[in-house]
Amino acid sequence: MKAYFLRRLLLIPFTLLGITALVFAVNRLAPGGPMEQSLSSLVGGEGQAKRSRAESGFSLSASQVLELEEKFGRDKHAFRSYLEWLGVLPRDIASKKAGKEFPAGKMRVEVAVPGTVKVATIERDESGGARIVPEPGLDMAGWQVRLRTPEEQAARWAKWVKGVELPEKPGYRAVLYQSRREGLLQGSLGDSTKYQDPVWTMIFQRMPVSLYFGLVSMVVIYGVCLPLGIAKAIRHRTWFDNASSVAVFAGYAIPGYALGSLLVVFLGAKLGWFPLRGFTGDDFDRLSFFGKVRDVVHHTAMPLVCYLIASFAFMTMLMKNNLMDHLAADYVRTAAAKGVSFPRAVFKHAFRNSIIPIATTFGNNISLLVAGSMLIERVFDINGFGLLQFNAIYERDEPLIMGVVFFSAVLMLVGNVLSDLCVALVDPRVSYK
């Protein structure tokens, strides 16, 4: 068994590599990315479709296109960018980059060194290279220079601004930058292009909210659904079984986010019984301990109902159906024929075998425990991990998308291993050899 779980754990990095590479490729190939959105805003946007592309494109320059490419990481090949995200190759430090065009007919240009008040002189040569001119008292250790040719700038313009000619021919452009290995292998997920905050920080700031909903949901689901499923199996085809089935399947038929919208409108807006949004109230910091508990419960009552409603039917019916199958098995009838009481036959013999399928779902719930729900958190404006995922996708924030995908994938893969472990603990027949 140890060898099996060791192999499963060793497969996790390779699976993560495939997942992140696929998401990175889809994110790059999908239209309407951050480059397109920024260019659209610069040339007038979609709302001014009646203006000609040539007329609206005059407000844009080739240097601006290059700066946007550097900002969103589109100035390099997608494969190299992915290796930089992994930390295999060094990547440019976004906050340590500055560029400037050479004056017409000049071979030198002065560029301000980012983060300092100093100015560096960049010199280009006829062979197409550029270098930093050494100067006394100017320490440029770790700085590099990249030369952008007019032909390269024209090619980048043609790629992003289709159907519009360059207003004027660009000159040579010098880009001063620093680079280092700063990726996943170094423990960094980069900085959000939208919020300029480290992705790890943004993820961990949202964890407490999603953990609260996840833990409470799991406790309530397992604490209520398992006993309810046992009671339904024992009282099969009675009024209790029929009434509870109608209730749980009615809940299963209603999506959580749709129910959330109804609760916000009727219980929140019309009746005023619950707050419309947020995890806590505006005066939360001034409340006493019990006041804070009451405030959190008051704000999270409606979202919790939306989290629980769909899971109740699945877990309850899974428990009921599995228990009924085992109650009809020969070994339970044999135990009853030998004088074993019915409660003992249920809980001592049938129940343990019935929870094996439920054990397979336990590990998968780990990802739900932390990830939360995008749409439910969106409806109630709860600043959790689910809403962070929603905003990352909506705003096409590539570093943030890759960060939340990586974190969610790790939880999913670890949860699958935990599911196998739970099955092995519940069922002694399982050896994984």
Task: Describe the protein.
- The chain has 433 residues and is mainly alpha-helical.
- The chain has 2 domains: 36-183, no CATH class; 199-426, MetI-like fold, CATH 1.10.3720.
- The protein is built from 17 helices and 6 strands.
- It has a 3-stranded antiparallel beta sheet.
- Helix 1 (2-29) packs antiparallel against helix 17 (398-426) and helix 14 (365-371) packs antiparallel against helix 17 (398-426).
- The longest helix is centred in the C-terminal third of the chain and has 39 residues, at 289-327.
- It starts with a helix and ends in a 7-residue tail after the last helix.
Observed structural traits:
433 residues; mainly alpha; MetI-like fold; three-stranded antiparallel sheet
Helix-strand layout with pairing:
Elements: H1 2-29, H2 34-42, H3 53-56, H4 62-72, H5 78-86, E1 91-101, E2 108-112, E3 119-124, E4 130-132, E5 143-148, H6 150-160, E6 173-180, H7 199-234, H8 239-252, H9 256-270, H10 289-327, H11 330-337, H12 342-354, H13 356-362, H14 365-371, H15 374-379, H16 385-394, H17 398-426
Antiparallel strand pairs: 1-6, 2-3, 3-4, 5-6
Helix pairs in contact: 1-17, 2-4, 4-6, 7-10, 7-14, 8-10, 9-10, 10-12, 11-12, 13-17, 14-17, 16-17
